[in-house]
Design a protein that fits this description.
alpha+beta, 8-stranded antiparallel beta sheet, 4-stranded antiparallel beta sheet, 9 helices, extended, binds FE2/S2 (inorganic) cluster, binds fe (ii) ion
C-alpha cells in the first residue's frame, strides 16, 4: 500500500515538474518582456502633450482688435465681474443706468481687485478702502479723506456692447479703435431669437483659429466624414463642402479675392459687391454644405457666408431652404496659448428647432478642429501647394493686427510670472 502511494505521488510530481518546464520554455521562447512601471504617457494624454508641445516660431500672441469678454446677459445693472484675458485683469461693470465700463482690475491705492467691488450708481467702489472710481477711471471719493489727489486715476479700457456681447479694445500701441463690431439688425432689434451657444478652451495660437477659414482643403478631410459614423460607411453618408472661396477686403472699394473663378455664388449675389462696403479689417469666406446620402441624395443644404471681423470675431450667416440663421463666433486669448471660443446661434422663432440641430452639428464639427489645434505646432513657413494659396493671403491679411509692441509669447509669459 505504501509502495503504491509513493509511486503515484512521484508520478504526480514528475508530471507537475514537466508541466512547469513546458510553461517556462513556452514563456522563454514566445512571450516578450513588457515591464512598464508608473504612469503610461501616450497619445491622447492631454497634459503630457501640452507640456511637450513645440509651439513653433509664433507670431505675437495678442493681436490688436476687439475681443469679447462677456455676454451682455452675464452682467446685469449694478453687477461687476473680474475677467482675465489678453495678459490683463479687467474689472467690467454695468452702472445702474446700464452702461458698461471696463477698468483695470487692480486698484491704484493698494492693489485690491476692483472686480470684487460694488457698483454704486455710475461708479465702482473698491472692496478694500472704499475708494470710489468713475467709469472714466478717476477717483470720485475717498471716504476717509477730504481731498482726492488729482492723479487718483486707474487705467480704463474702451468697450462696446453689440449683438448681446461685450467687447474690449486691445491695442499694443494704445491706439484708439479705427473700427467697431457692428449690430446685426435682426439680432439687435430682437427679430431673431437666441437659440443657444457652445464654449471651448483651445490650446493653440489665436491665428490658428481664423486660419481655418482660409484652409479650404481641410473642409472635406476633417469635416467630410459623417458625424458619429466617421469614416466607417463613407458610401452611406458624408458631408460635402464645395465652392469654398476666401477673400480679404483691402479697403472700402478694393478687394482681393482668392482663389478666383467667376466672382459669383449660386444665390446670385456678386461676391465682389458683397465686399464693397467693407473695410480691410474684414475677410469673407463663402462655401456650401450638403449632407450626401448614398452618394445620391442631398440633404441639409446650406450656403455659408463667414465674415471675419478683426482678429477674434466672426459673423456666420447660414442660408437654408427654410430660412437664414446666424452664428456669432468669438475668439479671445485668455493666455498666450489658450483661447476661449464661443458660438452664439440666432434664428427666427419658427426656425428654432432646425437652428438647434445646426448648432449641435456645428459643435461636433468644431471639436474635430479642436483636436487638430490642441495637438499641432505653428509653422511659420508652411510647405504649401498652389491650392493652399488662400492661407498665404490670410497670413498677409492677419498680420495687419500685429504692431511693433505686440506681446510675443516670451514677453507675455514673463508678465504672467510673479
Ligand atoms: S486698495 Fe482700493 S481703496 Fe485701497
Ligand atoms: Fe474646420
Amino acid at each position: 500500500m505504501l509502495e503504491w502511494w509513493i509511486q503515484n505521488t512521484l508520478t504526480a510530481l514528475l508530471v507537475l515538474i514537466f508541466t512547469i518546464i513546458i510553461i517556462l520554455v513556452y514563456f522563454a521562447l514566445f512571450v516578450n518582456i513588457n515591464w512598464v512601471k508608473g504612469r503610461k504617457f501616450q497619445t491622447g494624454d492631454k497634459d503630457f502633450i501640452l507640456r511637450n508641445k513645440k509651439r513653433g516660431n509664433l507670431p505675437p500672441v495678442f493681436p490688436n482688435g476687439w475681443y469679447a469678454v462677456s455676454e451682455s446677459s452675464e452682467l446685469k445693472k449694478g453687477q461687476v465681474k473680474h475677467v482675465i484675458a489678453l495678459g490683463e485683469n479687467f474689472a467690467i461693470f454695468r452702472t445702474v443706468s446700464g452702461i458698461v465700463k471696463i477698468l483695470d482690475a487692480y486698484c491704484p491705492h493698494l492693489g485690491a481687485n476692483l472686480g470684487q467691488g460694488l457698483v454704486k450708481g455710475e461708479c465702482l467702489e473698491c472692496p478694500f478702502h472704499h475708494w470710489l472710481f468713475r467709469g472714466d477711471g478717476y477717483c470720485e471719493n475717498i471716504p476717509y479723506s477730504e481731498k482726492v489727489p488729482v492723479n487718483a486715476k486707474t487705467r480704463t479700457w474702451e468697450s462696446c456692447e453689440v449683438n448681446n456681447l461685450i467687447f474690449v479694445w486691445y491695442h499694443a500701441e494704445s491706439e484708439e479703435p479705427n473700427w467697431r463690431p457692428q449690430a446685426v439688425p435682426k439680432i439687435s432689434n430682437g427679430t431673431w431669437r437666441y437659440q443657444g451657444k457652445n464654449e471651448f478652451y483651445v490650446n493653440s495660437h489665436i491665428q490658428d483659429i481664423p486660419e481655418n477659414g482660409a484652409d479650404v482643403a481641410h473642409l472635406n478631410t476633417v469635416h467630410g466624414p459623417a458625424m458619429f459614423l466617421n469614416n466607417i460607411f463613407p458610401g452611406l453618408m458624408r458631408h460635402s463642402w464645395s465652392d469654398a472661396k476666401w477673400m480679404a477686403c483691402k479697403n472700402d472699394s478694393e478687394i482681393q479675392e482668392i482663389p478666383q473663378t467667376d466672382g459669383t455664388v449660386s444665390n446670385g449675389i456678386n461676391r465682389k459687391k458683397s465686399c464693397e462696403t467693407m473695410q480691410k479689417h474684414k475677410a469673407i469666406l463663402h462655401l456650401k454644405h450638403s449632407l450626401i446620402l448614398l452618394e445620391k441624395f442631398k440633404l441639409l443644404e446650406l450656403s455659408v457666408k463667414a465674415v471675419q471681423i478683426g482678429p477674434g470675431y466672426v459673423e456666420l450667416q447660414l442660408d437654408s431652404f427654410w430660412g437664414s440663421m446666424y452664428i456669432l463666433q468669438t475668439v479671445t486669448p485668455v493666455e498666450p496659448m489658450l483661447q476661449r471660443i464661443t458660438h452664439h446661434m440666432y434664428s427666427s422663432r419658427s426656425l428654432g428647432p432646425y437652428a438647434k440641430i445646426v448648432i449641435i452639428g456645428e459643435t461636433l464639427m468644431f471639436q474635430r478642429d479642436i483636436e487638430i489645434w490642441n495637438n499641432k505646432t505653428f509653422t511659420k513657413t508652411p510647405l504649401l501647394v498652389k491650392q493652399d494659396r488662400a492661407i498665404t493671403e490670410f497670413r498677409k491679411w492677419y498680420s495687419q493686427f500685429y504692431s511693433d509692441n505686440s506681446p510675443t509669447f516670451q514677453t507675455a509669459s514673463k508678465s504672467l510670472d510673479w
